[in-house]
Amino acid sequence: MRTILVVGGSRGIGKEVVKKLLPENKVVSISREASDLEHVNLTQIEMDAVKGELPELEEVDGLVYCPGTINLKPFSRLSEEDFLNDFEINVLGAVRVLKAYEKNLKKSAQASVVLFSTVASDMGMTFHSSVAISKSGVEGLAKSLAAEWAPKIRVNAIAPTITDTTLASKILRNDAIREKMKERHPLKKILDPTEVAELAVYLLSNGSRSITGQVLKMDAGMLSIKV
Ligand SMILES: NC(=O)c1ccc[n+]([C@@H]2O[C@H](COP(=O)([O-])OP(=O)(O)OC[C@H]3O[C@@H](n4cnc5c(N)ncnc54)[C@H](OP(=O)(O)O)[C@@H]3O)[C@@H](O)[C@H]2O)c1
After folding, report:
1. For residue 26, what pLDDT is reported?
2. Which atom of ligand 1 is nearest to the CA of 119?
3. What is the pLDDT of residue 180?
4. All domains of the chain, ordered by start, with CATH?
5. pTM of the full structure
């Protein structure tokens, strides 16, 4: 049985990843507050993965890093602290976790890492300068590590468009805005966290054994087609 570490498995996309990985895998979930999920194959660790001392683990065959930010403001209102905070959570947090478990991943016969970017790294969007810098960093990290760790460990990133989670709740704050967001996408939808989780689980699985160094865009058509 493989062991998958999900950092941020208590809510949003990460929680859906955990639900899909059980019961076939052992799952270790790290988040500041545990979720309501209970299963014999699930271990939940309550801690700040960006700042705290990460626990020793035995086996880690797959790793998903979910913490992220949507700190949208005009450039003139973004402080240096905003940029640093976004960078710390999105990029340095992932770096810390990957450094902590690199040795475990290297011992695995079939290791896979999944990071999260955003469509705003690919397409310029107003008020996204801080998050776009950080997520572009995540994409660079995914590609660099995919090269450095091949052929032992695969590393990929998923770049979703707006997804219905607590992180996006400030944006998706009423029905009118939700409809407007749907209209912006050729597929006329916002993403459900379960469909993003499906892609993450695929990237962790043997089915994606020839995919590494990729940024997979789940964009509901927004970046690639015009209708
Ligand atoms: N939702 C969207 O519209 C959207 C769009 C594009 C990209 N993304 C990216 O997709 C990823 C997942 O997003 P999401 O919407 O599922 O986020 P979410 O709903 O905010 O969930 C984030 C998860 O990470 C945990 N977490 C946050 N900070 C942490 C820390 N310091 N230490 C440990 N755990 C921490 C949270 O639990 P605790 O708070 O209990 O720690 C939670 O389990 C993010 O990287 C995000 O940037 C999301």
Report:
1. 98
2. 6
3. 97
4. 3-218 (3.40.50.720)
5. 0.98
